[in-house]
Specification:
globular, four-stranded mixed β-sheet, alpha/beta
Length: about 100
């Protein structure tokens, strides 16, 4: 079985995620994002595949820490996970 990888890099005001954002990679992603640099305005997840619920939990935590950051992209499974967890477009808990 191939090893899944995730790369997170800063590009201008965006954190760009490339690769798998799932159970196999999220522990490393938590460490990489524990100290966020100032000025992040976007979480670019266009190149994420696959995405699972642990990846969604990371993204929801990041959007809570970066309330003005916009999410760019909707990888496969994103909408379904967002709806299943009743999260709004910014991955905050939806009251309705």
């Amino acid at each position: 079985m191939p090893t899944e990888t995730l790369r997170i890099e800063r590009l201008d005001t965006a954190l760009v995620f490339t690769g798998a954002l799932n159970r196999a990679t999220v522990a490393t992603a938590w460490r990489q994002t524990s100290q966020l640099p100032p000025g992040i305005e976007q979480l670019d997840i266009r190149a994420v595949s696959p995405l699972d619920s642990t990846g969604m939990a990371l993204l929801a935590t990041l959007t809570a820490r970066l309330p003005n950051a916009q999410i760019v992209g909707q990888p496969a499974g994103f909408t379904e996970l967002r709806e299943a967890y009743r999260l709004d477009a910014q991955l905050q808990m939806s009251v309705s």
